[in-house]
User: Fold this.
Amino acid sequence: MKRLVLLRHGQSQWNKENRFTGWTDVPLSEEGVKEAVRAGQTLKENGFNFHFTYTSYLKRAIKTLWIVLEEMDVMWLPVRKSWRLNEKHYGMLQGLNKTETAEKYGADKVQLWRRSFDVPPQPLAADDERNPKFDPRYAELTPDEIPLTESLKEVIERFIPYWDNEIKPTLKEKNEVLVSAHGNSLRALVMHLKNMSKEDILKFNIPTGIPYVFEFDDNMNLLKDYFIGDPEEIKKLMDQVANQIKKK
Assistant:
């Protein structure tokens, strides 16, 4: 049996402030660090024995992975980073408060930008200082690879080839792999693995810091998937993600 664990990073400072984050490199909040610690303890208690790990280029996912590996006492494990695991790029929305943006543009419009399958937010201007081309970590990307905004469709297009060519073969060989990434990049992979419809994936939310397990047979056929934790608490956390643009 093969086991893949998907872990959305712990709460970031902008998650806490209910702001669109995207490719902006914000740190974990104090609660996010605690979530990462609990995730590591949970994975250790449940007997996971990872042989390889993956994460994005963004420090909230990297730090979450470091904390998890420290809690499991396996900080020596190989880690491979890729920009293809980065969060969806939110374009001009990055940094804006979700509730305030909904009040300004309307909840339906903002929900479309957040959760539409193929309608991206307004892009950054080419000379915007937030453009990833000005960031040295993306220096090797071609102009066509650097996004100024993205929908879930574009996230799928950049991530699934990496799954097929890199993560999946590693999982088949190594048996247990951990991926620490982001809400939308992980939703892209979940949609692919579960063959979900566009309608179903738009309603599916992944809470921060909760391990999500996929089990495969030796031929990489999906057997089952499940979150580790109390189902009622996980449902509550998923609902909180879904309701981020609503007034408190």
Notes: Residues 152-174 form the longest helix (23 residues). The chain has a mean pLDDT of 94.
